[in-house]
Amino acid sequence: MYMAMLAGGQIIQKLVKKSFAPPAGEGLNAFAFNVKSRMVLRNTIKDKINAVPRDEATTQLILAESMSCFKMNNQVVRSLDGTKNHVLKFMLKWFVIIGLIIACIENKELVLALQQAARFYLVTGLRAVQLLGTLENQQDWSDKLNDEQLASALSQLLALYSMQEQAGQKGYCRVDAPELEAVGEFVTYDLLLHADDPQAVGWMLRKLSPRLRRLPPVQRALRTFVALQTDDFHRFSLEFDAMSLLERAAMLRPLPRIWTRSIKMMNKAFGKQDRFPLEELARWMLLAGINNDGKGGKQAEKLCKALNIQTQRHPPPSPPPALPTRVGGVDEAADSWETIDVVDGVAELVTKERTKPPSLGFAQFKLAPVHEKMDPELARMLVRDVAFRLEAVSATKEARSMTELVMKGAREAAS
């Protein structure tokens, strides 16, 4: 507390140096200020307030609360003997009121900038996965540095949110400010980014208020974290499917580990005679959507190859049977209208079978030892395929460019 007050005393001296004349002395005696004039003090505070742009109501609030901090005798203190509580109260009121109010005003633009920066780093990570597929292309790119920049932006945002929430409880700031409506979004990003680190998530939860912990996106991030830590990959896939594009971008990094552990669990569960469809495996491994419509078989085949799981493709489909032809609108093989209806029904069934996507093949477990780790190059290619698919799915749901996705906070606040 002594060091905090000493540091705070230097700030106050700079802020109101025209109004106070600190007497000689060392240590805490530096807080024994002499007030030259109440009018000089008021004008000094007013000048400092006017230096920061804000609305008139907030200006009056700051001015009133500032003056209440300095409603003391003309001689504040000559000596600290018996006045320690008085000085401590003076210091705390100054920092709680002035610090919170001015921070709420000045941090608005900082909050918007950090929000855009965090979204930008998430988009950059997604683009890097999509465009830098091979190790040779990643020589000038660092996933670690991008993650560090993202973590730094999110950490600063959470600190500002906490400050705003404290000020809102005291009535000095608005808790429903436009730039703060997205608080759940960025708390979610921070939780997902550290989903592999239970200690970091636990520390974040200690700092989050009950209101923030109850937000729907934060709840989804916590369910995802629990599913990941307990190897509940079915629950993980359901939560992953409900995420936004940027939330999924934050979860691309753990996918190879999820694939490896899932395949090992399936290898223990299934027998040698079981044949698991590749398209269904792709759906389980998030290589295709929940309603995949028979897609993702090739990606699932690559995944099995990377982990030494045997696969077998189905033979190509046989050509459709020849149907009776019509000449002049009459079927050659039909002697009555009943036969014509039967032929039409067969033609309809054949058409449906031909339009149904065929299964590529199946996987068989326990035929060979499962690799402990995936080949990094092949894992990177699979993650790239997932990243492209996620962006394509997002584009069909919400037509937004990446620039609009990054800048949405500023545009919504301006509108």
Secondary structure topology:
Layout: H1 2-15, H2 38-50, H3 56-69, H4 84-131, H5 143-170, H6 183-193, H7 198-207, H8 210-213, H9 216-229, H10 233-241, H11 245-250, H12 255-269, E1 276-277, H13 278-284, H14 297-306, E2 310-313, E3 326-327, E4 330-331, H15 337-355, E5 361-364, H16 376-397, H17 402-414
Antiparallel strand pairs: 1-5, 2-5, 3-4
Structure description:
The protein has 415 residues and is mainly alpha-helical. It folds into 3 domains: 2-81; 109-253 and 405-414, no CATH class; 276-401, no CATH class. It contains 17 helices and 5 strands. The chain has helices spanning 2-15, 38-50, 56-69, 84-131, 143-170, 183-193, 198-207, 210-213, 216-229, 233-241, 245-250, 255-269, 278-284, 297-306, 337-355, 376-397, 402-414, and strands at 276-277, 310-313, 326-327, 330-331, 361-364. The strands form 2 sheets. A 3-stranded antiparallel beta sheet has the order 1-5-2. It has a two-stranded antiparallel sheet with strand order 3-4. Strand 3 (326-327) and strand 4 form a beta hairpin. The longest helix has 48 residues, at 84-131. It is elongated. Residues 1-36, 69-92, 330-343 and 409-415 have low confidence and may be disordered.
Work out the helicity level: 55-70%
- Count up the domains: 3
Main pleated-sheet profile: 3 strands, antiparallel
How would you classify the helix and strand content by structural class? mainly alpha
Placed side by side, the strands forming the largest sheet appear as: 1-5-2
Distance between the termini: 44 Å
| Overall pLDDT score | 70
Assign an overall shape. elongated
Low-confidence stretches: 1-36, 69-92, 330-343, 409-415
Q: What radius of gyration results from the CA coordinates?
A: 33 Å
String of helices and strands: HHHHHHHHHHHHEHHEEEHEHH
Report strand %.
under 5%
Q: Please count the beta strands (DSSP E, at least 2 residues each).
A: 5
Q: Can you count the helices?
A: 17
Pfam family, one: SAC3_GANP
Domain SAC3/GANP/THP3 conserved: 105-310
Organism: Phytophthora kernoviae
InterPro entries: Haem_Oase, Haem_Oase-like, Haem_Oase-like_multi-hlx, SAC3/GANP/THP3_conserved
